Amino acid sequence: MTYVVTDNCIRCKYTDCVEVCPVDCFYDGENMLVIHPDECIDCGVCEPACPAEAILPGTEPGLEKWLEINTKYSAIWPNITLKRDPLPEAEEMDGVTGKFDKFFSEAPGEGD
Question: Where does the pLDDT of residue 1 fall: very low under 50, low under 70, confident under 90, or very high at 90 and above?
């Protein structure tokens, strides 16, 4: 099993999860984070650390799309290991539905 970052991370991009990850398996996109499924050790510490509740176990039904997205972008976005401020609109965007179709960006973030 691996954990995956889902829709609610988009345009929030809290990095509390990055700070607690013992294996540095998070990767930085312009407006969200993803988890590298082959690096994740399934410890689960990131899930409760996410203020937006955007991290879920990859074994939950209906998350196949998110596993593919996490796999694809963790291979091309830069690694992030340091906590940063969330995006300015994070509080406003937390809980908004359909964010992937409206706001997802393939552009990489800054990484560390």
Answer: confident
CA angle 14-57-83, nearest 5°?
20
- For 23, the token pair is 């294996």
Domain parsing of the chain, residue ranges: 3-82
Distances (CA, A) of 29 to 22, 35, 79: 20, 11, 9
Q: Give CATH for domain 3-82.
A: 3.30.70.20
Distance CA 66, CA 68 (A): 5
Interval 67-81 mean pLDDT: 97
Q: Under a CB-based contact definition with an 8 Å cutoff, are residues 5 and 34 in contact?
A: yes
* Whole-number Å distance between alpha carbons of 59 and 17: 19
Contact indicator for 34, 3 with CB cutoff of 8 Å: no
